[in-house]
Amino acid sequence: MFDLLSLVVFFPLLGVIFMFFIPKENYQVLRNSTLFVTILHFIFTLVLLFMFQEGNPYYQFEINKAWIPSLGISYHIAIDGISLFLVVMTSFLMPIVILSSYKAVTSKVKEYMIFMLILETAMIGALVSLDFILFYLFWEMMLIPMYFLIGIFGGNDRVYATVKFFIYTMAGSVFMLVAIFYLYFASGGVSFDLTYILSNFEGSSTVQGVLFLAFFVAFAIKVPMFPFHTWLPDAHVQAPTGGSVILAGVLLKMGTYGFIRFAIPLFPDVAYKYAFWIALLAVIGIVYGALVALVQKDVKKLVAYSSVSHLGFVVLGIFAFTTTSVTGSIYQMLNHGVSTGALFLLVGILYERRHTKQIADFGGLSSVIPKFAIFFMLALLSSIALPLTNGFVGEFLILSGSFSSSWLKNGQLLTIIATSGVILGAGYMLWMYQRVMFGPIRHEENKKIKDLSLREFIYLFPLMALVFVMGIFPNFFLKKIEPSVNYYLSSFYEKNGKSNRADLAQARVNSTNLKNSKFNGVVE
Q: Could you report the per-residue pLDDT of 122-141, keeping only the tens digit for each?
């Protein structure tokens, strides 16, 4: 079978090779070439999407080949319903980010484009890797281009933000690396493959608790969960617009994805034991992020703190351990990439025109830039989960699944408290919109602001369209996600000794007689 998944992973690196032959002075050629590479790459992921067999909960497009056999390291990649749309989302956002940078990035254009393409390969590689060493290489590879994107193309305090971002994420990664090597040796020192370690690792409850903590810290920093979140606002505020979009749209999801793919399957007993405390941290993050966003004077920092709040919902849903809540969490990862990515793009457009992000420097803009005001409102409504938008579907599934969970201690109380984040979210977003878009025009400079250009309309429109497509037709996405979630949860239920529960019966739906699908890939 044609190795489509490897092409999806490494095609951006082919673009990097091509970029080296373009003179660095040819800015427009560099921009257009990168845009072409990212659009073509998105088309490849769409082929992957439409070849994906709906209803199959197992890994598809699987490639498992020996890479360094003497050390038990393999090139093992695959996708399932949990990772499928995260891969598609990554490739969907990248052409938008490149197009948005045409006016924003005016120096070192070649370096910017190369960093973006390397980052794209690293993100997709991490999402499809099933060998721990391969996953860790892609995981660390993500840090390098983002480090330079913030450090070179960021704001005035970019060095501080970059160092803080790097130290936080590296610290968590070191803990995870130690845990990976322990799992390898504790499983017989044969293979770093996830499926092998899942079948062969046995450890005492104390050992599992320590290992789970190592993975938890690495993933919680990446999310970032309260109280590991302090690097995020600085990174977002100082990052260039494109960097903020990718950071919010994809990089933060690596943490929540890591919980589902690695931490919980490896240590289900520990995850179940500490689910309440992790969910409690998530709920604190929901309320805390919303309250801090409410008092922000910088519009970009407000959107950054909204991410802390919104991703708290995702973590809550994951640790409620129900099909509804986990499916909602995966869907909300996608929703957050669309809505918050759009908000960062819109804030970037304002900054390009006024060179300020202070809310007090705006006011009355709806009468000057009405097209912008409409797009801004649509992105905002998605963020606050208005019915018929994508955000509503994700938050509804998370809250309803968490409230009804029999696995999460005090789940009803936690869900009720988390619901206050929805109310607060509407408060800080609408209040920000009122101050920026309505009222008198207090500064003469605002009268001269230009409305959306054709280029800006082109890259914003797909995001706005997706807000309503995902809000009105969620079943297209959920039908591909749910079978893999059911299968993932069925293993969790069995490992916790409750295989006779009704939860397990539900989780086994559409999870049998499908393993020999022709789309499962190549295993060698």
A: 999 999 999 999 999 999 99
C-alpha distances (whole Å) from 314 to each of 52, 136, 311, 446 are 25, 23, 5, 38
In angstroms, the CA 143 to CA 165 distance is 9
As a whole number of Å, the CA-based R_g of the chain is: 22
> Mean pLDDT over residues 321-343, rounded?
93
Could you tell me which residues are beta bridge partners of residue 358? Answer: 298
Angle at Cα 241 formed by Cα 386 and Cα 336, nearest 5°? 30
- Copy the structure tokens of residue 178: 């130690």
Contact (CB, 8 A) for 365 and 436: yes
More confident residue, 114 or 500: 114
Beta strands in 307-441 (DSSP E): none
How far is C-alpha 248 from the chain's CA centre?
7
State the Cα–Cα distance between residues 138 and 492, nearest whole angstrom: 27
Taking phi first (over 0 means left), then psi (-120 to 50 degrees means alpha), and beta for anything else, what does residue 164 get?
alpha
State the pLDDT at residue 458. Answer: 94
| pLDDT of residue 24 exceeding 60 | yes
Query: pLDDT of 352-397, one tens digit each?
Result: 888 888 998 898 898 899 999 999 999 999 999 899 999 999 999 9
Q: What separation in angstroms does the CA of 430 have from each of 150, 279, 379, 382?
A: 29, 27, 11, 12
Q: Residue 256 corresponds to which tokens in the numbers above?
A: 């929540």
> What is the per-residue burial (b if ≥16 Cβ within 10 Å, else e) of 294-303?
bebebbbbbb
- Percent of the chain surpassing pLDDT 90: 62
Q: Say whether pLDDT at 517 is over 70.
A: no
**Full DSSP string of 176-189:** HHHHHHHHHHHTTS
What are the C-alpha distances in Å from 363 to residues 333, 370, 377? Answer: 32, 13, 15
Residue with the two structure tokens 């970019």? 158
Please tell me whether residue 147 adopts helix, strand or coil conformation.
Answer: helix
Report the C-alpha gap between 85 and 96 in whole angstroms.
17
Question: Higher pLDDT residue, 161 or 313?
Answer: 313
What number is the average pLDDT over the span 69-97? Answer: 93
171-198 burial string, b = 16+ CB within 10 Å, else e? ebbebbbebbebbbeebeeebbbbebbe
Q: What is the mean pLDDT of the chain?
A: 88
65 token code pair: 């080949």
Show the DSSP H helices in 52-78 as ranges: none
Pair 509, 503: CB distance under 8 Å: no
Percent share of the chain, pLDDT over 70 = 94
Confidence at residue 202, expressed as pLDDT on a 0 to 100 scale: 84
Domain boundaries, the chain: 279-472
132-150 in b/e form (b: 16+ CB < 10 A) is: bbbbbebbebbbebbbbbb
Placement of tokens 């919010």 in the chain: 248
